[in-house]
Amino acid sequence: VQLQESGGGSVQSGGSLKLSCAASGDTRCMAWFRQAPGKERERVAKISSGVITTYSDSVKGRFTISQDNAKKTVYPQMNSLKLEDTAMYYCAANTRPCADWRPFDYWGQGTQVTVSS
């Protein structure tokens, strides 16, 4: 399975961005992670079987993840963006159902999100 992210860019604090991640094959669990310079990779959100969503506390209430099964694409809608949301965002996927945050087999190349004041 290959994953292709898009939708990153620059936005002012309080603004919104919608990313997308298109999978080349069938997946059961898709997730987003992010990594800021000098920091460890952080979980953002995941969606299981296109329905069950989980969010990290840092984005809960601001980000919404959805999936278009026909297009095999996941869309994280990011609202009320903060400076601390600046990071490289990575899409990840498994062909197995989501189980907690067990290791993901497939990863995208990443898309940069930069939030400025």
Strand content: over 45%
Overall average residue pLDDT: 95
Cα end-to-end separation: 37 Å
Question: Element order, helices and strands?
Answer: EEEEEEEEEEEE
- What general form does the structure show? globular
Structural class: mainly beta
Helix content: under 10%
Largest sheet: 7 strands, mixed
Number of strands: 12
Question: What do you see in this structure?
Answer:
The protein has 117 residues and is mainly β. It has no helices and 12 strands. The chain has strands at residues 3-6, 9-12, 17-18, 20-23, 29-35, 42-48, 52-55, 63-68, 73-78, 87-94, 106-107, 111-116. Strands 2, 5, 6, 7, 10, 11 and 12 form a 7-stranded mixed beta sheet that branches. Strands 1, 3, 4, 8 and 9 form a 5-stranded antiparallel beta sheet that branches. A hairpin with a 3-residue loop joins strand 6 and strand 7 (52-55). The termini are far apart. 32% of the residues are buried. The model has no long low-confidence stretch (mean pLDDT 95).
